[in-house]
C-alpha cells in the first residue's frame, strides 16, 4: 500500500524563521508549502476581494478575520497537490478558533514544530528583512544579504516590518500561542531558533525524518 504523505505545521513568533526553514523543508521533503501570510500578500497585490478585506489588518500588524483566512486555507489544503505530496502549513492556525476550525474538518498534522527565539532578536530580524518579489526569497540586510547588486536593487520591505508593528504582532502572537499549543501538545516539538539556519534545519530535518520513518513502518504493518 501507499505511504501516506506527511502533514506538518510550523509555528513561532513573527520573524522566528518559519519561512526560511520552510524553503529548506520543501527542498528536501517536497511538501506543499502553504503560508497564510504569503497567500494573503498575493491576494493583496492581485487586488482580489480577499486581498481588499485583508490589507488594512495586515498593514496594521493585526490578524485578518478568521472566516477570510480559514476559507482560503481549507480551499488550498483540499487541492490535489497537497493531498498527493503532503503539506507544510505555516502561519495557520493562529488563534484557538482557527485551530478548532481545522479540528472540525478532521485536519490534524503529524507534527507541530515551534521555533523558539527571544523577543529582542525578533525585532532586529523583522526590521532587517527584505523580500525578493521576483523569486519570493527571504533576505536580511545583515544576516543574509542578497547575492548580486541586481537582486539588491529590487528588494522590498514589508509594510508590517516596522519596530512598532512588530511589537504589536508579537503581543498578538503571545496572546494566542498557549491556547493553540494545548491543541497540539501531544505532537509538539520546540526547536531552538536562535542559531544558524543550517543548525536549526538539522533538528527540523531529523524530526521530519523520524515522522517519515514512522509512516513507512505503520504502512508496512497495515
Ligand atoms: P506572516 O507572513 O505569517 O508573518 P509572521 O508570522 O509575522 O511571520 P514572518 O513572515 O514575519 O516571519 P517568519 O517566521 O516566516 O520569518 P522569516 O523566515 O521571514 O503573516 C503576516 C500577516 O498576515 C499577519 O500579521 C496577519 O495580518 C496575516 N495573517 C497571516 N496568517 C494569518 C492567520 N492565520 N490568521 C489571521 N491573519 C493572518 O525570517 C525573518 C527574518 O530573519 C528574515 O530576514 C530572515 O532572513 C532572517 N532569519 C531567518 N532565520 C534566521 C536565522 N536562523 N538567523 C538569523 N536570521 C534569520
Task: Determine the fraction of residues in helical runs and give it as a percent range.
Answer: 40-55%
Percent in strands: 5-15%
* Parts with pLDDT < 50 across at least 5 consecutive residues: none
Query: Structural class, from helix and strand content?
Result: alpha/beta
Largest sheet: 5 strands, parallel
Radius of gyration: 17 Å
- For the biggest β-sheet, the strand order reads 2-3-1-4-7
- Distance N to C terminus: 8 Å
Characteristics of this structure?
single chain, about 220 residues, alpha/beta, two-stranded antiparallel sheet, 7 strands, about 15% strand, binds BIS(adenosine)-5'-pentaphosphate
Q: Briefly, what is this?
A:
55% of the residues lie in helices and 14% in strands. With 222 residues, it is an alpha/beta fold.
Report on the architecture of this protein.
This protein is of the alpha/beta class. Helices cover 55% and strands 14% of the residues. It is built from ten helices and seven strands. The protein starts with 6 loop residues before the first strand and ends with a helix. The structure holds BIS(adenosine)-5'-pentaphosphate. BIS(adenosine)-5'-pentaphosphate binds next to helix 1, helix 2, helix 3, strand 6 and helix 10. BIS(adenosine)-5'-pentaphosphate binds at residues 12, 14-20, 36-37, 40, 57-58, 61-64, 69, 91-92, 94, 98, 125, 128-129, 138-140, 143-144, 160, 169, 196-197, 200.
Amino acid at each position: 500500500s501507499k505511504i501516506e504523505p506527511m502533514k506538518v505545521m510550523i509555528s513561532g513568533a513573527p520573524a522566528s524563521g518559519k519561512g526560511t526553514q520552510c524553503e529548506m523543508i520543501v527542498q528536501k521533503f517536497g511538501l506543499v508549502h502553504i503560508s497564510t501570510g504569503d497567500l494573503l500578500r498575493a491576494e493583496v497585490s492581485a487586488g482580489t476581494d480577499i486581498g481588499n478585506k485583508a490589507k488594512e489588518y495586515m498593514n496594521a500588524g493585526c490578524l485578518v478575520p478568521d472566516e477570510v483566512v480559514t476559507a482560503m486555507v481549507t480551499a488550498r489544503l483540499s487541492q490535489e497537490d497537497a493531498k498527493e505530496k503532503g503539506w507544510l502549513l505555516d502561519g495557520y492556525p493562529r488563534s484557538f478558533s482557527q485551530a478548532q476550525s481545522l479540528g472540525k474538518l478532521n485536519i490534524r498534522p503529524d507534527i507541530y514544530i515551534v521555533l523558539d527565539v527571544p523577543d529582542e532578536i525578533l525585532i532586529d530580524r523583522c526590521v532587517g528583512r527584505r523580500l525578493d518579489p521576483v523569486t519570493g526569497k527571504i533576505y536580511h540586510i545583515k544576516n543574509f544579504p542578497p547575492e548580486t547588486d541586481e537582486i539588491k536593487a529590487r528588494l522590498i520591505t514589508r509594510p508590517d516590518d516596522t519596530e512598532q508593528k512588530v511589537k504589536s504582532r508579537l503581543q498578538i502572537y503571545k496572546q494566542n500561542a498557549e491556547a493553540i499549543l494545548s491543541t497540539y501538545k501531544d505532537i509538539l516539538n520546540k526547536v531552538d531558533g536562535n542559531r544558524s539556519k543550517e543548525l536549526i534545519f538539522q533538528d527540523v530535518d531529523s524530526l521530519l525524518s523520524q515522522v517519515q520513518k514512522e509512516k513507512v513502518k505503520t504502512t508496512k504493518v497495515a
